[in-house]
Write a structure and sequence with these properties.
Elements lengths: L8 H12 L5 E8 L2 E9 L6 H15 L1
Antiparallel strand pairs: 1-2
Length: about 70
């Protein structure tokens, strides 16, 4: 991220909101130094369903019905 020491509070809020847009799983970290925001990090996680787990759950539910 470029040096944004002269960014206004409204610009910082806009950048934080932009980092949050579309984020389903993850985090936004705001780094502050000497009372100024110096960095905004976005970490996004993508979760994929495990087919094995779904098949296993189906087998368990079938066995319980017996």
């Amino acid at each position: 991220m470029a040096n944004h020491a002269s960014s206004t509070p409204d610009q910082l809020i806009a950048r934080i909101l932009h980092a949050l847009e579309g984020l389903q799983y993850g985090s936004v970290q705001i780094v502050v130094h000497d009372s100024q925001v110096i960095q905004i990090d976005r970490t996004e996680k993508h979760r994929f369903p495990l087919e094995k787990a779904e098949v296993y759950q189906q087998q368990l539910s079938r066995e319980k019905k017996k």
